[in-house]
Amino acid sequence: MRLSSLAYFQFLTATASAQLVAAPFGLALTSHNHQQQPVMAPEQQGGDSGQPQPQVQQPGVMLSDVMGRDRSTNVFAGFARDSEAVARRLDDPARNSTVLAPLNSAIDGLPRKPWEDLAEYHALGAGAYEGDDGRDRARRNLRRFVEAHVVPVSPWPEGEKRRTLLEGDRDIWWETRDGVRVIQPDGIEVASIASRVGNGEVWILKGVRNYA
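-> structure tokens emitted (212 positions)
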């Protein structure tokens, strides 16, 4: 990491605090209006996508209630929680979404952190994310990262081209290859469908979208 400010490192670490100190549900987007119900077992890939999709397993539960319950994606869940507009959407029963949550390992494997932009380093130098202006830039970049992984529709039919919440994003769709869902055009495999709730689904991705 190229951030030299210890204080800001702590700020960003807290954004994904479940990596270090949170309990399995510590990054859940808390909702006080929806009754909690048992989490459905994840749907593993490899089945026949041509079969009818299962009914919503938890109609009284929102995406905000289940984000972060799968520890393999709690870094992304922390980012989503701290993105105010996305957090409101995931708690809204009137707006359905398909959340494309990358695995922690996929985020860790990025050449740069989600809040870093190579162009900003070139323009501003190593201190691009220091100070108030730097923190604002980092928050904006994190928001874009989250928005690029939320599709404003659910159910999302196979082959249907959609754009994410990210302004100016390109069309994406999914198709089945050898029984596995693949997000196109990036070719990212869906590891599983972690949750089906009242206002959408959480899909766990093996990679991170290229949205730059």
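The helical segments are 6-15, 63-66, 74-81, 84-90, 104-108, 118-124, 131-147.
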